[in-house]
Amino acid sequence: MRRIEPAAVLGVMSREVANFRTFWRSTTFSSLMEPMIYLLAFGLGLGTTLVSTVDGVDYVEFVGTGMVATAVVFSSALPAMFGTFVKHRFQRTYDAILAAPVDVEELVSGEMLWIGLRSGIFGTFPLLITIGFGLDPAPAMLLVPFFCFVTALAFAGFGIAVAGSVAKIDQFNYVTTLVITPMFLLAGTFFPIEGLPEWAQVLSQFNPLHQLVVLVRSASFGFDAYDPLRLAGLVVLAFAMWRLAIDRLRRRLID
Amino acid sequence: MAAIELQGVVKTFGPIRAVDGLDLNVPEGVCLGLLGPNGAGKSTTMRLLTGQAIADEGSLRVLGYELPRQSKDARARMGVVPQLDNLDIDVTVEENLKVFARLYRVADIGAAVDRALALARLTDRRHDAVDELSGGMRRRLLVARGLVHDPQLVLLDEPTVGLDPQIRAEIWTLIEDLRAEGTTILMSTHYIEEAERLADEVALMAKGRVIARGRPNDLIAEHAGRRTAEYYAPPERRAEVRAAAEAAGLPVRSAGPAVVIVGCERAPDGLVPDDAITRPSSLEDVFVELTGEELE
Ligand SMILES: Nc1ncnc2c1ncn2[C@@H]1O[C@H](COP(=O)(O)OP(=O)(O)OP(=O)(O)O)[C@@H](O)[C@H]1O
Ligand SMILES: [Mg+2]
Fold first, then answer.
1. In terms of CA atoms, which chain A residue is nearest residue B69?
2. Which CATH number fits domain B2-220: 3.40.50.2020, 3.40.50.300, 3.50.50.60, 3.30.1490.20?
């Protein structure tokens, strides 16, 4: 592995920041509104008619804490997939960056870190909204941005690797349908996975979004002994996705 | 030390030999024009020089650094202007330059950006988004972005391809200024006029290798003589003239409705018809002479 220079990584991130400044308003708006709409619809609709509590927790708080994972996956995997593809194929941004003293490792690291940081912040929005809906703030919630950051790194790496592997942009449909949507629905956000068949419960243990959901609920309602293991699993996954993204993108960018 | 030293470089893409035994030496302070038709391997050569393509064979040195191992050090001192515009269009002119000043680890970013803005004559547009600029301004910004770190060596890949004549003239002025400062330049092009006007020396490239190299005038004198005649006439008459020229051992070719006699000053009296047009021989004539292919 070659040496990674912080100046190169920061330079790549600064390009993202410069671009983000042109569209942060709309992104922030939808990131705040979306959880609110979900909570109103699901929480109030379902919560007042069919279910009122899950595992002793108000249904609104159950969904609200779970939606942190939703916010993370949609602000990491999808921007990484589309952003990388567009910058590589349509805008040829990466050709310009790699002609400067920046290696593929540094390019990928900068892109992942930026998405991780952004998701770390945007991921907390559903939690803040849920507090507005009555969830009691807890000191451990200060760890949530970090949990989101690590999970977002993993999904960003995954998204970049996918973008580096597909031939055409429409092939992203396979990935969203077969990977992202099932992960999102079976994360335990809207219903506890304990109600699922045994095999699905086992599978869920390998779903990083489920692990994030559990960690966020632990931060809100109390940790259990397995939580450090969950976090360690996410860290290992993020590292593996980082290496995979570098490998896939290098094949694409260096002839 | 030469700024660029390539020896026996080969780069294949499956069955295509994009660069095929390329030897190229660019001394410091020289503007070398790499002249070749579509698919000659010009862009691939540029990508090899920036480490974005890895050669299958041969040795490559840029500014004394061995590629691909020390490519990053070489890139730090090298500026690149791509064939296709890849600016960030939603972002301001100034931010585009700032980002690249950071990527090139420039110490005084403010000063470097001001200098590049002045160079591109965009100081008063610094706060505008790139997509509000005219085509010529965008192109000047693209060149200035590649110069933001005051590089020792500049690679220009077809800097004016597809641009209208006025914008082309603006970019030529920018390149002339750069030459006057003594920056080493490697510029690929398939425009004869561009090479003749800007390059100290040209290397003619075809099928992945350099087939001739020298000052434009020397190359022309050596391979195409002083003057070239173009004779427009009915086909039978052209065929007669062509046969006579061939018999006299002169290079001759057909170009649309004309027959072209290269180095016609060497023709015996009476061979070139009085109503033929004669003009100074050009690099195009040299190229066709050497490869049998047209450039543009
Ligand atoms: N990434 C690639 N994959 C496959 N073939 C490639 C690739 N890059 C270049 N080639 C092929 O290599 C040959 C040389 O291409 P190159 O782009 O270097 O030519 P060029 O001289 O720059 O041409 P132009 O004047 O059209 O820009 C062409 O046949 C091209 O199709
Ligand atoms: Mg080209």
1. A2
2. 3.40.50.300
Tens digits of residue pLDDT in A178-222: 999 999 888 998 888 888 899 989 999 999 999 999 999 999 999
Distance, CA B41 to ligand 1 centroid (Å)? 6
State the smallest CA–CA distance between residue B204 and chain A in angstroms.
24
ipTM score of complex: 0.89
pTM above 0.95, yes or no: no
Chain A residue numbers touching B76 (CB-CB < 8 A): 101
Please give the backbone phi and psi of residue B93, each rounded to the nearest 5 degrees, phi first. Answer: -55, -50
Contacts of B50 (CB under 8 A, 6+ apart): A98, A99, B71, B75, B78, B80, B155
Rounded to a whole number of angstroms, the distance from the CA of B221 to the nearest CA of chain A is 38
pLDDT at A16 over 90: yes
> Nearest Cα to A11, choosing from A103, A76, A120?
A103
User: What letter represents residue B24's amino acid?
Assistant: L
Residue A208's domain comprises: 6-253
Residue A16 CA to residue A114 CA, distance in Å, equals: 7
**By alpha-carbon position, which residue is closest to atom 8 of ligand 1?**
B44
